[in-house]
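#lab-general

N.A. 3:47 PM
ok so I finally got the sequence cleaned up, no stray characters, all 513 residues accounted for. can someone with queue access submit it? mine expired

B.Y. 3:52 PM
send it over

N.A. 3:53 PM
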Amino acid sequence: MKNIIALTCCCIALSAQIPLSVTVDESVIIKKADNKLIGHNLEWTAMYLNPSNGVLIPGTTELHPDVMKLLLGIPLPVSRISGTTSQEIHWKKAVGPLADRAEQKLADWERGGIKRAFGPVEWVRFSRTMDPSVQLVWCINMFESPEDAADLAEFFTGDGTSNPNGGENWAAKRIAYGLSEPVTNMIWELGNELDGIEYYKKWPSPKKYTDACKAVIAAVRTADPKARFAAFAATLSTLSQYKQIYGGTWDIWHKAVLREFGGDIDYVVFHPYYGSAPSVYMSIHERRYLDTIRNDIKAVTGSDRIKIFLSEYAFWPEQEDPDKPWQQSWYRTHSLEGCLADAEWINRMVSRPDVTLGSRHCLGGSSAGPWALIYFDRGAQKHYLTGIAEIFTMFNVPLTANGNVVQCVAEGEKADLSKKKCLVTASAVTVPQGLALLIVNRDPENARALSFAAKQEYRLVSETLFTSDSVDDVNSATAQPLVKKTKAVSDKGTFASYVIPAKSFIILTLARK
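B.Y. 4:20 PM
back already:
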């Protein structure tokens, strides 16, 4: 039986329907389903520099109730404190009473230093409010000393009684500042994109980086012996400069990391920013970069224990008109086009056993570029969510159902993951009722006539659809065209076919017959 969701009948009828075959084998388990692919980055300046962007009440260190009311319910399984400013901030100046904090200037465009209201304590408090079981990721400022990193580990993980590093009892200070429970599940990321040309004088070779990392790892473990670490592979924006800067190809960086201290890390970090230009097709990110990193992990270390952490990912909007500022194209990151690009990327990663953590850049604030999940309309004096929030809440349901990602093969026009212009992806996750089928169709013109096959027989019980009239549609303070719509289905027949609308992300929940 062909199921056509009522609210999109007109759109489907007006577009061509291209055949799409999806075959699921529930007996082939790829990995345990987990929502830790759909985390978010928080960037130091973006979270509080401008009160309209921040999550704090202006002039205080308290969470803003209106902002939190809007954000609560959005999954935050991973919270990474990130970005270029992670290599600028001095954490000791951002703790304690706000009046006592020292001013810091973190970016060239800041007019001067300010007292950072959103510091380590506020980050943890915000993240745990969003999700009490959140995985926290601190990007260590590699321009500070190893001793500073050791003190930070004591600050987060200590019990306030022991003082492993001597001197200041930083854990006791954390408790005094209102964060009574230690942070025992931290992942420590060893710097952010330090292979860029702007850092060349500090890190003129991978060895300089690996030597610095060894010192920091040893220091952190004085306070947190079980600390977990992540080290970055080549930064995407500098791949073309590797021969000029380092005299080799991009893979020399992560190979040096794996050789020098692979036994001390749990993750290799990569930052994919994808778009429609040939150099950033998703298939290239997977085949050229992720597959290479995965294979090198096994080749250098002899096992696949180390996993890949996509600690920044997002859609990169091309400049539509070279005579106009790039900022005029920024809306594309959270238009329907950008939302579906993020959905396809996540859908691809769902079925990769080597990729286990992810944090999209970024949750809030225009000062971190065009990628925010939450914005503030100055005219309406109102916060609003972009369609990215809907994408993440959709993925969160099947990924937290205590099931497994199982083998799912999609075949049809522009459904080959290895091809540059793939537009259709599918994944399958077992859920208590039976199966969740996740399909992203980025094709702006054509629907897909789905034919479905699996080892077991199923019936369709619900469908959740995310789409809109145009790929340029965006949410605003006054209009929200990008919302998911869920519909229960009372169909007792065997599920075998369906029409997937053009430019859509859809989750079909199937019950075992």
